[in-house]
Amino acid sequence: MTLRLIVAAILGLAVLVATVRLILWHRAAGDHGARLRLALLLLLQPVCAILLFLGLFPPAISGGSDNLRVATAGASRFSPTGAPLIVLPEAGNLPGEAVPDLATALRRHPSARSIEIFGQGLTPRDIDAARQVAVRFNAPPPPKGIINLAVPTPTAPGATFTVGGTLSGLPHASLELVDPAGRVTDSGAADGDGHFTLTGTTRADGVADFTLRIRDGNRIIEQATVPVIVRESAKPRLLILAGAPGPEVKYLRRWAIDAGFAVTTQMSAGGGIQLGDAPVSIDSATLRRFDAVLVDDRSWAVLGAQRNALLGAVRDGLGLILRPSGPLDGPTRNQWQALGFTLQGKNEIAPLALPKPPAAAITRTRQGIAEADRPDDLAMPDDMLPDISRLAATPSGRDTVPLLQDAGGTSLAAWRALGTGRMALFTGIDSYALTLTGRQPLFDQWWRSLLSAVARPAPAPTALDGIYWTGERMILCSLPGEAQVERPEGGRTGLIPLNGCAAFWPTSAGWHLLRTKDGVTPFHVQLIDALPAMRAARDRDATLMLRGDAPANITKGEQHPGPAWPFLLAWLAASALLWALERSRIGRRQPAR
C-alpha cells in the first residue's frame, strides 16, 4: 500500500466520523437545528479533506520544454526564439535565465529531457547533474596552450624532479622551467604529439614555486606555477656487495650517502679479507633490515647458496640491482638470464653514448649556489665527453620494463617484478667517470632512477594530487576527523568530513595547509585565470563523455507534481470557514421563550 492510499484512507475515515457526528448532533437538537446549516457543515467536511489531500499530493502536470539550451564559458549570443536558454555563471552576461548551476535549472524545468550545451563545456560542478538527461554537445576545437600538466610528487632535498605535460596547437613553441630565483633550470621542446618533460632540482626542505614558460621566439605565450613540495623522508637502507674494491664502488657509496641513503658496504679483498663496514650475514632476517641490495657479478658468483636467501628476500619486497664489472662468465650470465633478463648481444665491453651537456647557465643552476672556496666553474662539465663503457649485451625480456637508455637509444637498464619485490640489471661498467668530468647530475639521475624503481616502498608522505583553482570546489578525502585549512593570508576554515571526505572552496591562490590530527599537508591553489587551456580541455573532454541518450530511468513525457500552495491555501480558507460556521449561531433556530 502506497503512502497516497494510506493518507486517502485516513482522510476518508475522518470525513465519515465527522458526518456521523453531525447527523447525531442534529437529531439530538430537535427543532433547534437548521437543515441549511447542517447541509453546509456536511458539504465542507469532504471539501476540506479533498483540498488537504491535493495539497499533500499535488496533481501531476506536464508542460514546458523537453529541451534546454545551456550556455557555458566561451558561448556566443543566441537567438531569443527556441528552447529556453540557461546561462551558467561561466557564460557571463548573456540574455537568458541565469542560474547558479545546472541542477537548479533542471529543478526549475522538470520536464526537460535533453540539454544542448554551447561553449567550452560543463565544469566539474555540473557533471553529476548532467547525467540525468541526454546531452548534445558540439565540441569546439582543442584550445591552444598547456592542456595537461603533471606536477611532481614530494621530493627529497637536493633531488631532481620531473615536470611533464602536453601542449596543443603550438608546434614551434619552446619550454623553460624557471626556479624560484628566476634562473632557467631546464629547457626544451615538445615532441610531435605535444608531450614534454623538464627536470628541476630541489634545495632546502619546504615548498617552492617553479615557473613553466611557453615561448614562441622571444614572446611568452603562457606561463604557469609548478608547485613543488620538498620534504625529508626516512633514509632508505642500501647494502652494496662488491667482489673487489674499485672506483665504481667508491664513488657510488659516496653518492648514496650524500643522497640520503643509509649505506652498508661489503667488499672482498681476497684471501678471506673483507673491507668496508662490519660484516653482515646474507639471510632473510638480515635482509629484512635493508630496502635495496646492489650486487656485482663477482660478488654474485661467491654468494653460492646465499643467493636463495637473497632471492627469497626479493620475493618479500626487497629491491635488487645486478651490475657487471666487465664481461660476464658463462654461469653468471646463464643465472641472470634465468632470472628473466635476456642479454642480447656480445659478451664484451662497448662504448656508451652520452648526451650532450646542457648549457652552462642551466648547469650552474642545477649545481646550486657555489661555495666561496670552490668556484662553480670547477663543477662545470668538461668539453670532452668521458669514456664510459657498458656491457655490449643489452637487457630485455618478456616481463621486463626498460628503465635507462643512452644517447643512441641503447637500453642500459631494465627491471622486472619477482614476488612483491623488484630486480634490475644495469649494464654500465664505469659510470664513476661522470663524477670526475662534471657530469654529476647524469650520474645522480641514473642511480636515483635505478634505486627508486626497485627499492622497498616506504610510506609515502601525504600529498594532494592534481591541480586546483580558486573558486572551484575541492574534495578532500582520507580525513581522520575534523580538520582545518589554513589559507595563505593566515585565516582558517573548518572542515566537517562526511565518510572521511569534505568539500572546500578556495578563495585565494597560493599555498594552503590542511591541518588534521595526523599532521599538516601543504597544497597549492592556482589563480582562476591560470592554465586556461587546461581548464577548457578538462571541461571539453568531460562533457564529450556525457554525450548520448537520456538515462533509462527517465522517460520522455513523464509528468511531475504541480505546485501545492494553491490547494493548501484553499484548504486553509475552507477549514477557517468550517471552524467559524460550527461555532457561530448563524442558522440555528432560537427556542421559544
What does this structure look like?
With 593 residues, this protein is an alpha/beta fold. The strands form 9 sheets. Strands 16-15-14-17-18-25-24-23 form an 8-stranded mixed sheet. It has a 5-stranded parallel sheet with strand order 4-3-2-5-6, with no helix packed on it. Strands 26-32-31-28-29 form a 5-stranded mixed sheet, with no helix packed on it. Strand 12 and strand 13 (219-230) form a beta hairpin.
What is the topology?
Layout: H1 3-29, H2 35-56, E1 60-61, E2 67-71, E3 85-87, E4 97-98, H3 102-108, E5 114-118, H4 124-130, E6 134-137, E7 145-150, E8 160-168, E9 174-178, E10 184-189, E11 195-201, E12 206-216, E13 219-230, E14 237-242, H5 247-258, E15 262-270, E16 273-276, H6 284-287, E17 292-296, H7 297-303, H8 306-315, E18 319-323, H9 330-338, E19 342-344, E20 349-351, H10 360-367, E21 389-391, E22 394-396, E23 401-405, E24 411-418, E25 421-426, H11 433-436, H12 440-454, E26 468-469, E27 474-476, E28 483-486, E29 492-495, E30 502-504, E31 510-516, E32 519-526, H13 532-544, E33 560-561, H14 565-583
Parallel strand pairs: 2-3, 2-5, 3-4, 5-6, 14-15, 14-17, 17-18, 18-25, 26-32
Antiparallel strand pairs: 1-33, 7-8, 8-11, 9-10, 9-12, 12-13, 15-16, 19-22, 20-21, 23-24, 24-25, 27-30, 28-29, 28-31, 31-32
Helix pairs in contact: 1-2, 2-14
